[in-house]
Structures are given as structure tokens and as C-alpha cells.
Predict the 3D structure of the following.
Amino acid sequence: MFTGIVEELGVVEALEDQGDAVRLTVRGPHVTVDAGRGDSVAVNGCCLTVAERAGETFTADVMRETLDKTSLGTLAPGGRVNLERAVTATSRLGGHIVQGHVDGTGSVVRREASEHWELVEISLPPDLARYLVPKGSVTVDGVSLTVVDVGEVSFTVSLIPETLARTTLGHREPGDRVNLEVDVIAKYVERLLAGHREDRS
């Protein structure tokens, strides 16, 4: 489990194509300090398992399914990625409950700069729109954000200078693909209510 509070911007060192998978090597001096084999690291919001660690880099195996259904398939050497280690029992929950299981992808529609913050509109798969509410939580490329407004095919978030400076969201341009994870609590509530309705019918 994660909180959506990015610990550092990592750099893609290598991508080894294995046909049905890719071996991804990322440089991240902060997250590799205590990383060991089997540990979980969120890379742009995707929960990956550390297979190897060498100095300031770690390597993870990314299945074809993940490459096809997330933005990890568009990574290239030298690209920046958001990194977060899994939470511990003593961690502060600074963002919200994030599983690192991407629900779908969207793309940046527009950016509107202001003096102290930036409004960003992101496209949204129609089947995910029901899980977003104004002032609710959403994860974009592993970053826990508060939803400003929601439409049928897009939503907006406001990015403060800290988020712009410390995550990839400060560099995303219109058309760039991003990973989306909706609030897992909303999905559980929907499931429970569906069962309740079936019991009453």
C-alpha cells in the first residue's frame, strides 16, 4: 500500500525487452537506501516488485499486461518517473490509500497556469467517472491529488508549486498519457451497495 506522496523523481536507466515483459531499471538514490528483493515500489503509480538492487538503482520485471494497460509502456531511457516506497505501520498517511493498481489511463487535456498554482485537466475513461467527486481523492501517475471538478470525460486538479517541482506532473504536456487510480473505498462502497440491492430484490 502507498499514500500517493512521491518520495523522489527517479530516472529510467534501462529497458530490456523480453518479449512478453520488460526488465526496467530505475535510478532512485532515496528509495533504494533500504530497498531489498521483494519490496514494493510505486513507479508512476504502478506497484512493482524489486527484483535486483545495485547501488542507487533497482530493477523490476514489468509484464506485458501492465505495459499495455498503463503508461509504463511509453517509458524510455532518461525519462523521469515518480517513486514511492510502500508504507510501513509507522508511516504518516499524508495522501490517501493508494494500492498501486492502475484502473486506467487518461491524458493531459490542458494546463492553465496561475500565479501560485496550476489547473490541469485530464481525460477520464467513462467507466471511471462515477468514482470521482469534487474534493475527493484521485491518484495521477502515483500522486495523490484532490479533485477540483468532474465531467463525463475529464476532471481537473490544482497543482501547487511543490507538486509541480517534485513530480513528473510539472512536466506533463497536453497529450501525454498518465496512470489513474480511483479511490478504492468508492469501489468497495459500490460493490457493497450492489449486493445490498440484489438481496432486496
The longest helix spans residues 184-200. The chain has two domains: 8-85, 104-190. Residues 104-190 form a domain with the Elongation Factor Tu (Ef-tu); domain 3 fold (CATH 2.40.30.20).
